[in-house]
Amino acid sequence: MTEAPREARVLEAVVSLVDSLLDDFDVVDLLTELTERCAELLDVASGGLLLADPLEQLRVLAATSEETRELELFQLQADEGPCVDCYFTGQPVSVADIKSEADRWPRFVPAALEAGFASVHAVPMRAAGIVVGALGLFGHRPGALNDADRLVGQTLAHIATVAILQEHPPTPSTVMQQLRNALTSRVHVEQAKGFLRESLDISVEQAFELLRNDAHTHGAHLTDVARKLMTDRQSRQQLLASIAESASAPPL
User: What is the pLDDT of residues 232-251, one digit of tens each?
Assistant: First the structure.
């Protein structure tokens, strides 16, 4: 079967994501899907979203894979890298060959190379005149983003920002509160991932996929499933058993 033209795939992705914004959606789940779309539509292997908290400290909100999430976390710990620069300057960053930036990012570059990435890019997320985060894009081979890819990446970053802020028209004060709400949602998900990893003896990435699958299967929000797993002791064992059953079920 012939693959649809790239322009059609981009439009389909945008329509799908915007449709989700018009329905009842979970912000962490939607933004994880958005990073997956980055890998499908752009010449990159994965993506990650960093969001600033009210103290202007960047936090990881979503990522295509656990490997990407760990690299984003390392970038924050080292306080250097494409997303950090993008957030503080408010300008896109595009590095075709990461080896060329060893002097600029002496700690981040070796970590990115060790993780298998050869090119890195970032586009800013903005709302009400404020830079609220950055969308990082990571490639397994050297290569620059062309103008079309950069436009698609920026469009996806805008959609991510709208997803976080859509509840109210953005103003500096409402932006800060909605950033706080989104980051709190991610904390619940991270706690649940760790709990499932220990309880089911699986990887963190597998734990996240099981949480998403359970939420989708039961028409629930990812964040609500995670919060229930961590706070509702009465139903925890039943929910854990349901998630564990889906983990052992054969693929369809």
Answer: 888 888 888 888 876 655 44
